[in-house]
Design goal:
Layout: E1 3-10, E2 13-20, E3 23-27, E4 29-34, H1 44-49, E5 55-57, H2 59-64, H3 68-73, H4 76-81, E6 87-89, H5 93-97, E7 103-105, E8 110-113, E9 120-123, H6 125-135, E10 139-141, H7 153-177, E11 183-185, E12 187-188, H8 194-206, E13 213-215, H9 224-234, E14 244-246, H10 252-260, E15 265-268, H11 270-276, E16 279-282, E17 285-288, H12 315-323, H13 327-354, H14 357-368
Parallel strand pairs: 4-5, 4-15, 5-6, 6-10, 10-11, 12-13, 13-14, 14-15
Antiparallel strand pairs: 1-2, 2-3, 7-8, 8-9, 16-17
């Protein structure tokens, strides 16, 4: 039920097709994040109309509420949320490690205090797999040990080695549960240290055959050039025959830079989070919709964008909605940002297939890196 066909390359950039039980994903692609089983503020049809081929659900948050047993009893996350296309769930690792003083790490797993009701919980590699199996996503992620972006070699090594040990436990439990409708992907860890990243990848490749491989622990505080270096160092050793997923990375320039370094899939909450605060991405940089300069602006957010916001509403109207506290404003800018990232993946794919990605990406980054627009 799972397959990946690599169609074309230009340098490290790749265009492919990922097949899952709920449909196909043309890569490179951005995955909108549905933290609580919904892309924040948007109707599933709006997410479809924006061109989303696959969305992400959050294991940690769905475990806390409504609980995976509720979701399973109601037919799984696809039926529960009415999303009938491919879906990926993260393992909850990033969220529980972000709790800092509210969690305790052991070899068994992570003991933490729920931010919802203050109860003590435990997530282990096995339970992370069990939760994701109950949710029913096409792609489940291993439970991993995430370290800060500037972690020392010693701390990053500890996280990387524990992630490999936990991967084996995830693999065993997933094999016990799976009937072929869900696949498990491993996660490369190792901080910003090249030797640890290589060791993580070697351990993953040596532990079995995988239908995809994720790169975790980036965009967690380290400077962008360091993230780029890590991707460049990993790329030559990454298996060509499976998709590569860069976790939690999804600002526009990050997509283009990541695609240029061989990444196929991306996710990030920034599209809707920025949208709710009136920050819109455009082909020439960021626009603050609340800015006074847009009070009488009759043009769309981005004249080159085909989203439902840009083809219908003016900047002046969007600013009015934000200044009046109308929810529609938050939703319209979120729709635009989601479509902007999805369309960026579509454009990158088209240029990879045409053999023009290098020139296009350089020009796109030059144009997009202009000063923020007020």
């Amino acid at each position: 039920m799972f397959d990946f066909e690599l169609t074309a390359t230009q340098g490290a950039a790749r265009a492919g097709t990922l097949t899952t039980p709920h449909g196909v994903v043309q890569t490179p692609a951005f995955m909108p994040v549905g933290t609580h089983g919904t892309v924040r503020g948007l109707h599933p049809d709006e997410v479809r109309h924006a061109g989303a081929q696959i969305i992400l659900g959050n294991t940690y948050h769905l475990h806390l509420r409504p609980g995976e047993d509720v979701v399973r009893a109601l037919g799984g996350l696809h039926r529960f949320s009415t999303w009938d296309r491919p879906m990926l769930t993260d393992s909850g690792g990033f969220q529980v490690f972000s709790l800092e003083t509210f969690r305790k790490i052991s070899e068994h797993g992570v003991d933490f205090v729920s931010h919802v009701d203050g109860t003590r919980r435990m997530i282990t590699p096995e339970s992370a797999v069990e939760i994701q199996w109950a949710l029913g996503a096409d792609i489940a992620m291993q439970f991993d040990h995430v370290v800060p972006g500037q972690a020392s070699h010693e701390l990053a090594r500890e996280g990387m080695e524990r992630s490999l040990r936990w991967l084996e436990r995830c693999r065993i439990r997933h094999a016990e549960l799976s009937d072929g409708r869900q696949t498990l992907w491993p996660i490369i860890q190792g901080g910003t240290h090249a030797d640890l990243r290589r060791a993580s990848l070697d351990g993953i490749v040596g532990s079995g055959e995988w239908t995809g491989i994720a790169i975790g622990g980036l965009s967690v505080g380290e400077p962008k050039p360091i993230m780029h270096r890590v991707l460049e160092e990993l790329e030559p050793s990454m298996p060509r025959a499976v998709p590569r997923y860069l976790m939690g990375v999804g600002f526009p320039a990050d997509l283009v830079e990541g695609i240029a370094r061989g990444v196929d899939l991306f996710d990030c909450v920034a599209a809707t989070r920025n949208g709710r605060h009136g920050s819109a991405w455009t082909s020439t940089g960021r626009v603050n919709v609340r800015g006074a300069a847009h009070r009488t602006a009759d043009e769309p957010l981005d004249p080159h964008c085909d989203c439902e916001t840009c083809t219908r509403f003016s900047r002046a109207y969007l600013r009015h909605l934000f200044m009046a506290g109308e929810m529609l404003g938050l939703r319209l800018v979120s729709i635009h940002n989601v479509r902007f990232l999805i369309r960026l993946g579509e454009e990158a794919r088209a240029h990879i297939l045409a053999g023009t990605f290098d020139a296009w990406s350089r020009e796109w980054l030059r144009r997009h890196s202009g000063q923020d627009k007020a």
